[in-house]
Amino acid sequence: MQPLHLYNTLSRKKELFEPLNAPYVGMYVCGPTVYNYVHLGNVRTFLTFDTLYRYLTFIGYKVRYVRNLTDVGHLVGDGDEGEDKIGRMAKLEKVEPMEIVQRFTNDFHTVMAQFNTFPPSIEPTATGHMVEQIEAVQALLSKELAYESNGSVYFDIETYNQRGGNYGKLSGRILEDLLNDTRELDGQSEKRNPLDFAIWKRAAPEHIMRWNSPWGEGFPGWHLECTCMSTKYLGKQFDIHGGGMDLKFPHHECEIAQGDGLTGHDPVRYWMHSNMLTVNGQKMSKSLGNSFLPSELFAGSHYLLEQAYSPMTVRFFMLQSHYRSTLDFSNDALKAAQKGYRRLANGLRVIKSMSYKAGEGNEDETKQQDIRQAIQQFYEAMNDDLNTAVGIAQLFTLLKYINMLYLNQLQASVLGEEVFNLLKESFITFMQDVLGLKEEGTDNQPILEGLLTLYREYKDQRQYDKVDQIRSYFKAQGLAIKDMKHQIDWAYEE
């Protein structure tokens, strides 16, 4: 079985994953700018790296996962001019900027919990690392890789490249082409080069969020924040840096230049990027009216949605595609994902309650080999740049045997105790621990068991009106009653 390989955006190929200090792994993921509700594009990114975090931990690595919160410095339009996104929202609502930050940080954590993602090891904020950012600006000035202009400080790309840097290497953009495509904008006249980016910005009189610095009152550049927070907790060079494809340029490109400028080498070994979302084949955007929030998905309250979709359905849907491929939201695709998730959830529920029982029937080597092969292929899929789509296909192979055992079409003794236990342990672990797919709606299990007891009694007594009432209740909960020859049970309705 091949070891873990990850696609490195920097080299544009899959590479053998070799951490700097195995078994320790340092992973940094650009977190949200907490000025509004987290959108689904963000969710896909965080879900991708949650799955990577889970898998790395599962195969024995000790991972320090750092995911920041941007609470200052991210300007409207993502450039060096304009209002701070958080400050702008605070002005509109006539509240303190930190009220905006707190509200949307709380919402972000709620949504991440709904999608069953693990919290990061450290969740630093930009405002909590002002000292480190001012020190980094001073260091870049002392190396003459930055210059002050009217109270702002800019990174000098031309000097950086003259000293051996290669600005544009991550995104594949050529400096000359970038210069030709960059038109002179208001406020750019204070830059030596229109591509130079701010690492410290002078605060205009109307700017709410400001800090004292050697260059006057201002605030840090958005790109510098991630450089300072990642290196503070993971070192001057670390293993994995993740984010959405939209951050590749200029954000991550600038991080490389800053990190290299400060230390003399690339800050990151493996750059990883998740791809974008589309809706019915169109790019997801507020202006097109096809952008919906997680809460709208869960409630089915957006005009493009035909029904509500649960968090685990959406998680399963996202994992069905490779993280580097475009993912298209449509009702048909979501309904198919709902069916697929519920089939797996039913398998998860029943295999948890099964235990090996010796019985009649000789062990079947073909079936044993099929199970072992599916398990091995799950590992191979995950080791092939986190191919969750192929991994999920192997879960359905294992599910076939779980259902045969459940329906008494197969005796556990045919698999043998070792393979039965391997099947049970692998299915539960792959689904819950690695893919983060859990059962939903099991809080009322004692009530369901009680109703099933009544159902059996009413059926024996031929009180079919009451039998139908219980069936209707289960159906309203998205559940079905299974009348089988050897038992009566319930299942998630597929």
Automatic annotation (TrEMBL):
| Localisation per UniProt entry | Cytoplasm
Q: What reactions does this protein catalyze?
A: tRNA(Cys) + L-cysteine + ATP = L-cysteinyl-tRNA(Cys) + AMP + diphosphate
Q: EC number(s) on record?
A: 6.1.1.16
InterPro entries noted in UniProt: Cys-tRNA-ligase (IPR015803), Cys-tRNA-synt_Ia_DALR (IPR015273), Cys-tRNA/MSH_ligase (IPR024909), Rossmann-like_a/b/a_fold (IPR014729), tRNA-synt_1_cat_dom (IPR032678), tRNAsynth_Ia_anticodon-bd (IPR009080)
Q: What biological processes does GO assign it? A: cysteinyl-tRNA aminoacylation
Q: What class of enzyme is it?
A: ligase
The residues covered by the Cysteinyl-tRNA synthetase class Ia DALR domain are 377-441
| Motif annotated as 'KMSKS' region, chain positions | 283-287
* Position of sequence motif 'HIGH' region: 32-42
The note on the cofactor says: Binds 1 zinc ion per subunit.
Record-linked PANTHER family: CYSTEINE--TRNA LIGASE, CYTOPLASMIC, CYSTEINYL-TRNA SYNTHETASE
**UniProt cross-references to NCBIfam families, sorted A to Z:** cysS
Quaternary context: Monomer.
Q: What is this protein called?
A: Cysteine--tRNA ligase
Q: Which organism is it from?
A: Spirosoma endophyticum
Q: What is the lineage of its organism?
A: Bacteria, Pseudomonadati, Bacteroidota, Cytophagia, Cytophagales
Q: Which gene encodes it?
A: cysS
